[in-house]
Specification:
CATH superfamily: ANL, N-terminal domain
Shape: globular
CATH topology: Rossmann fold
Distance between the termini: 36 Å
Structural class: alpha/beta
Helix content: 25-40%
Number of strands: 14
CATH architecture: 3-Layer(aba) Sandwich
Length: 383
């Protein structure tokens, strides 16, 4: 379903509302998910003398060390520790740590409630993402286990992103270059990108063509896409190949990837204009398998860098001085730490993403979308 009216109000609320939602999510997640169900974080909390039950909000996480890609890689390399970062509920842990309300619903729900528990916590698919970091932390790919609940979370992020871009309107038709037949091309994206676009289309109710071969000009012309989403080079190649076709006239392009240059946005805008778009819209976007997120820039002038819109109720982003956990100063090039707040498969807290952006997160009202949600700087790139 498209984002609700409650979400639309939340997206335009003041910072205090967002902070309360973020802190409530941190409290619930640390107390009722990570502490009882994560073997890695239960041990990490004990080593740090961290009282999970006493957590009140995001500020309390400063007492914890960062999690590195190497931590995940080492755990995944050993059979005895392969599930250390997964949430694995047990009857005793549920009884001891869950709120009365959650235990009551589970108790009265019978088989249906227990089936939902499996849907929430049982991994059903996995993706991989590069381990970006110094030294040994950069050697390998992190395996991310996803449950059905995680895929729905990814879809919620995606539905919010599609709503921000207007791709969920009945008149819009989006051509995906990251899945189905498109995935056979050498520039096709892999991993979480395809899942993100698939789930975003499904949960937003948007018209998205996932299995349409972009090289089949006749079928693409029949579909008549108004928007294209995919890796920047794939989108640019598709638009340039479509020149001369009067039936293929998209006006919006969403460029997936980290570190997409402003010049690339300009080239894509020029390609859209060459196909007849009067006011082309080009937005950068990136996906995160660990966050189960699709984050996008709002529609803005091509030369603008409005930042990636975040969802403070679903994931926590911190900007710190590289190699430390100290908050970065305004204007400083900072390292991005990620904390999942709703994931049920592979879950991380204060994870070193290996990405950098200029601090701080923007908290002002966005002049292009009128939202007040925190925004990561558009200069996000590998550290």
């Amino acid at each position: 379903m498209p984002p609700s009216d409650a979400w639309e109000r939340f997206a335009r609320a003041d910072a205090a509302v967002h902070d309360r939602a973020r802190d409530a999510a941190v409290r619930r997640y640390v107390r009722e998910e990570l502490s009882p169900f994560s073997k890695h974080y239960r041990a990490a909390f004990e080593r740090a003398g961290f009282d999970a039950r006493g957590v009140r909000g995001a500020a309390d996480l400063a007492a914890l060390p960062a999690t590195t890609p190497g931590d995940l890689l080492r755990a995944q390399a050993l059979e005895a520790h392969r599930t250390d970062f997964l949430l694995r509920p047990t009857a005793d842990a549920v009884k001891a740590e869950w709120s009365f309300g959650r235990k009551f619903l589970l108790g009265v729900g019978g088989r249906r409630a227990h089936a939902q528990l499996g849907r929430t916590y049982l991994p059903c698919t996995r993706t991989r993402e590069a381990a970006l970091g110094p030294g040994d932390d950069a050697d390998g790919e992190v395996v991310v286990e996803h449950t059905r609940s995680d895929l729905e979370l990814l879809g919620e992020f995606g539905a919010r992103a599609f709503g921000l871009l207007g791709l969920d309107r009945p008149s819009e038709r989006t051509l995906s270059l990251v899945s189905g037949a498109a995935a056979s091309g050498p520039a096709a994206a892999t991993g979480i990108d395809a899942w993100a676009v698939l789930q975003a289309g499904w949960q937003s109710g948007a018209h998205v063509a996932h299995d349409l071969d972009p090289r089949d000009a006749a079928r693409v012309a029949e579909y008549a896409p108004t928007a294209v989403i995919g890796a920047a080079d794939a989108v640019l190649a598709f638009l340039e190949a479509a020149r001369g076709s009067s039936a293929i006239r998209p006006r919006t392009a969403v460029l997936l990837g980290v570190g997409v240059a402003l010049e690339t946005k300009r080239r894509v805008a020029d390609a859209l204009a060459a196909l007849g778009a009067e006011d082309p819209v080009v937005c950068r976007a990136f996906t995160s398998g660990l966050a189960r997120a699709l984050l996008v820039e709002p529609p803005a002038d091509v030369d603008a860098e409005p930042g990636f819109v975040t969802s403070p109720d679903l994931a926590l982003y911190e900007l710190v001085r590289p190699g430390t956990t100290e908050p970065a100063a305004d204007g400083e090039r900072a390292e991005l730490l990620l904390s999942t707040l709703a994931a049920r498969g592979t879950a991380v807290l204060r994870y070193r993403t290996g990405l950098a952006a200029t601090a701080p997160l923007a908290r002002t009202r966005c002049p292009w979308s009128s939202t007040t949600l925190p925004r990561l700087a558009s200069d996000l790139a590998p550290l």
